[in-house]
Amino acid sequence: MRSKETFFWITISCGIVIMAFILIPLVEMMTAPSFAMLKETIKDKDVVRSIWLSIYTAGLAAIISFIFGTPLAYLLARTDFTGKRFVESIIDLPIVIPHPVVGIAILSIAGRNHWIGQIFSDLGIRIMGSVTGIVVVLTFVGLPFYVNAVKNGFESISPRLENVSRSLGASMFSTFFRITFPLAWRSMLIGIIMCSARAISEFGAVVIVAYHPMIAPVMIYERFEAYGLKYSQPVAVWLVSICLILFLALRILTLHNKKEA
Amino acid sequence: MIKIENLNIHLGEFNLYDINLNIEENEFFILMGPTGAGKTVLLEAIAGLIPTKSGTIYVRNKNITKLPPEKRGIGIVYQDHSLFPHLTVLDNITYGLHFHKIDKAQAEKRLNRLVKDLNLDHLLKRLPLNLSGGELQRVALARALMVNPSVLLLDEPLSSLDTSFREEIRTGLKRLHKDSNVTFLMVTHDFAEALSLADRAAVMNNGIIEQTGSMEDILQRPDSTFVADFVGMKNLFAAQFRDTKAIINNLEIELGRKPANSHGYIAIRPEDIVLSKEKLASSMRNSFKGNVTGVSDKGLYYEVDIMVKKVTFKSSITKSSLFELGIQEGIEVLLSFKSTAIHNF
Fold first, then answer.
1. Which of A1, A99, A260, B242 is spaced 20 to 30 Å from B77 by Cα?
2. CB-based contact (8 Å) between A258 and chain B?
3. Is B332 on the interface with A (CB under 8 A)?
4. What phi and psi, each to the nearest 5 degrees, are found at residue B232?
């Protein structure tokens, strides 16, 4: 591409506009609170509790997605069946549904006048206003990201490797754990990161199902409503920083794995 | 050894129709055919990797049609080698031992023999990532043979390799086959390969087997126009048979024998057609004057098109005879061939 072409300059300028659009508000927010304020905020037990709650409910959602989503992702990657497209669109549904609608939908089966809610209530499990409820919501919104990432991972592994493994005497189970799993491990970690990142950012659905116990986004919203921008910023900075560090650590782990493979 | 009876497979665009095949114990059998003929589908069906619609597959008189692949004892080597990328060469080779009860000392002995035969000693600790095509293929062979399968299926093992590696793997294959009691079934589209390796072969096209027989049979006596064309019988003509003669348009060709059918085809290999300036004093019964209508360079030889009474023959000759005879487009030459070089069907 000759650098003097107009087209080249258009692509460059659009790129710069987008970078600025993303970075300026984020940098502004991250640098707004003073160091003293940040220090004071992290001493607040409510803040620590809500950030911790956010992280571990998102982590649980990712683990649940890993356990139930991995076999489904494998099925979608390896087999062709009538209605596969339909199944794939169902999995993508939570991405396109407005967040408060997700919360309302989950509440509508969690109540006592629905048989599922009845079963849960008989078992002593509460959805509304509980950690369980938060995990249910976060799994609902995070699952598609996990399944899609891992499905792509499985698709990139040649089925011939599995064929060879079986011809050498390995059962389907042994083949999965000795060949497919080690090769797809990286995409599973990426799926876990995507899923929990999506889960941590959820606000609209959670706020309907469980205002309390308070996850970090709900707390940020509450502080903004009650005390204004200045008081919500430090919590946001802490949440974003801790999540970035966690994801970075996971990412480094996966890159390390790639070198080994 | 391998006996396939009325095998049918319908897998969307991949179909096999009524496949019947018999492969003897310890034979080197070759499956030929153009791309999309269903060769790989047949291999994968024998290995149990794709579902069959109907028909039976026997190996050593045992019906294996419904057995899962891990219970068949049939090894497979793919064109792309398909080595496990996360395992070292040694772990790749010994992978199958996890699932077979083989005496340790015996396994060790077999490993050492394969490593030596296939010259893998210096590669054992490496990952497949940086190995050359020939090395990858040798590892894939060792891995498949390590569990001592009754049959080894080879899916175009040489076609992805450079010419230099190809020769090396080919001789390696031949030696491995000779030294083991494993039956080899290999897919290829290269005749030189097939000729140098195979005991017998089959030609496939559009999901059916066109012909099965010795390499000699397939090359010299094709059963159908497809096989004749596929094996390079470039002079293929529809003909009427009258007595011992075949008639193409107005051209009478002496066959020296009386065909059973009244019309059919005759086929002559281009290397069996001799060109000359004057009539040759030889036993060749068929000799015609014709005009050269085309000369094309095929690398190691030249292919010359000669028109005789509106029938175009193709003859392949060496570069030196091309110059000796001064052959170029438009000149008149004499073409001759023995009646025994004509194949009719």
1. A260
2. no
3. no
4. 90, 20
Which residues in chain B are closer than 8 Å to A172, comparing Cβ atoms? 68
Helices within chain B (DSSP H only): 39-47, 89-93, 104-117, 133-146, 163-179, 191-197, 215-220, 225-230, 319-324
Nearest to B325 by CA among B284, B285, B282, B274: B274
Three-state SS for A200?
helix
Q: Which residues in chain B come in under a pLDDT of 70?
A: none
CA distance B258 to A122: 93
Check whether A261 has a pLDDT greater than 80.
no
Report strand pairing: B263-268 vs B251-254: unpaired
Of B44, B70, B76, the CB nearest to A170: B70
CA distance A231 to A229: 5
CA–CA gap between residue A194 and residue A150 (Å, rounded): 11
Q: A166 and B78: CB-CB below 8 Å?
A: no
The answer to whether B82 contacts A164, with C-beta atoms less than 8 Å apart, is yes
- Max CA pair span of chain A: 72
Q: Does B51 touch chain A (CB under 8 A)?
A: no
Please state which CATH number belongs to domain A34-260: 1.10.3720.10
- Pairing relationship of beta strands B54-59 and B2-11 according to DSSP bridges: antiparallel
The helix/strand/coil state of A64 is helix
Neighbour tally for B219: CB within 10 Å:
20
Distance CA B234, CA B343 (A): 12
User: What is the predicted ipTM?
Assistant: 0.80
Residue A257 pLDDT grade (very low, low, confident, very high; cuts 50, 70, 90) = low
Contact B156, B79 (CB under 8 A): yes
Residue A260: its chain B contacts at CB < 8 A?
Answer: 86
DSSP for A143-155, please give it: HHHHHHHHHHHHH
Structure confidence by residue, pLDDT tens digits, B110-131: 999 999 989 999 999 999 998 9
Q: Rounded CA gap, A164 and A167, in Å?
A: 5
CA distance A238 to A51: 8
On whether the CB atoms of residues B238 and B201 are closer than 8 A, the answer is no
Which pairing describes strands B274-276 and B332-337: parallel, antiparallel, or unpaired?
Answer: antiparallel
The architecture in CATH of the region B2-225 reads 3-Layer(aba) Sandwich (3.40)
Strand order of the β-sheet with B200-205 is: B74-77, B151-155, B183-187, B28-32, B200-205, B208-214
List, in order, residues 6 or more apart from B122 with CB less than 8 Å away.
none
Chain A residues with CB under 8 Å of B48 CB are 166
- Per-residue confidence at A223, pLDDT binned at 50, 70, 90? very high
Residue A257 touches partner B, C-beta closer than 8 Å: no
Nearest CA to A58 out of A247, A227, A184, A230 is that of: A247
- Alpha carbon distance B96, B148 (integer Å): 10
Using a CB–CB cutoff of 8 Å, tell me whether A160 touches chain B: yes
Q: For domain B233-344, give its CATH number from 3.40.50.1580, 2.40.50.100, 1.20.1270.10, 1.10.10.10.
A: 2.40.50.100
Q: Looking at residue A260, what is its pLDDT?
A: 47
Using the Cβ of A166 and the Cβ atoms of chain B, whether some distance falls under 8 Å is answered with yes
Mean pLDDT to the nearest integer, A150-160: 95
pLDDT 10s digits, B207-241? 999 999 998 888 788 888 898 888 888 888 888 99
